[in-house]
Specification:
Layout (H helix, E strand, L loop, with lengths): L7 H6 L5 H16 L2 E3 L30 E6 L4 E9 L5 H11 L16 E5 L2 E7 L2 E2 L6 H20 L2 E2 L8 E3 L17 E3 L6 E2 L16 H4 L2 E2 L1 H5 L5 H16 L5 H10 L10 H14 L2 H4 L29 E2 L8 H5 L10 E2 L2
Parallel strand pairs: 11-13
Antiparallel strand pairs: 1-2, 2-3, 3-5, 4-5, 6-12, 7-10, 8-9
Helix pairs in contact: 4-9, 7-8, 8-9
Amino acid sequence: HSKLPINVRSWKKTLPLGSDHQTIWDELRPLLQRHSYLPKIPRLYFPDTHKLKNASLMNWNHFLVLNGISHAARRLHDSQDVILRVITAGGQGHTHLKIYRRLIAPPDILMSNNHILPILHEIIYQDITIVAVPTLMFDPCPFLFEDMLHMVLQMFEGTAYLHRNLIAYRDLFLANFMVEWMPESLIERSFGVRPRVYIIDFETAVEFPTDSTDRKCSDPPVILSEYGRPVAPELSSGLPYCPFRLDMWQIAFDLYTVYHTGLIEIDTLWADLTVDAPEDRPTADEAMQMLDTYLRKTPPSELHRPGPEFDVQVPVQVATPSAIPNIPATESLTDTTDTWVILGQIVFNRLLKEPACVTKR
């Protein structure tokens, strides 16, 4: 099929709103239909567990992504909405697929602290592997501090699980975390129920053997001139770096910039995770324990107040799209399981007012 991109990089260079994107996925339509999937705009409903009127409930008429590697679809036999994502093509993406398959296999997938997004189906065609995954979402609606901190606790837990299994993500910004639904506890509280947070897209991840002694990387996760993300100090040095400490800087960079809470212990934790010296940053386990200790000792009533607000009309300059539609503040975004999800444009609206690749001052 000459119309299909030759490798993963070529897939990611296709524009999602252009004719090439539709032509490519139309080429795969017969294959996908044989596996009971129909590429289309899904309904994208995410109701809360106890009420229908919720910011998580929506019906999009556009599938918003920053490149053509993903596509919304519907599973024909049960009308389940899914996201289709190309993982391998042209010899690229096999490390991504290997790590993903390991994490979704028993016993890992049975572990409650494993926050991997499950794969519903694998479709293999020649050298192309396409996975179908559940639709998730992230919404910039006003959080309670309590809601936000419990989500971050799950992020730390999922990261700690990866690190204990010697897997480093290397692109662990907030856009690569998704959530089942938005609790909106400031409007109506849920009792004993919290949405689960998932980690998506392991394209830049590395895995070390259990008998390895030198667990450092020499190459950046992406060519820095093409990265479009904030750049940690150790990546700018050109020297071998610890990818596990890099993960913590990347999570905390977003938290420190976007979620300035005014809570001394929390803001101090965010700051400690973003110090220039990687060895001085808390590990994922340590960060999880610190946040868990804070939540256990702090009365919930002190955290039952609005969290940081977002100016969702301002596009972030690190997302690198040439043209992205403005998203109204009342609407939500859905997971594309792609590193460059348009979600990042909204969640990181305060992150940078600088060029695409920056180093923390």
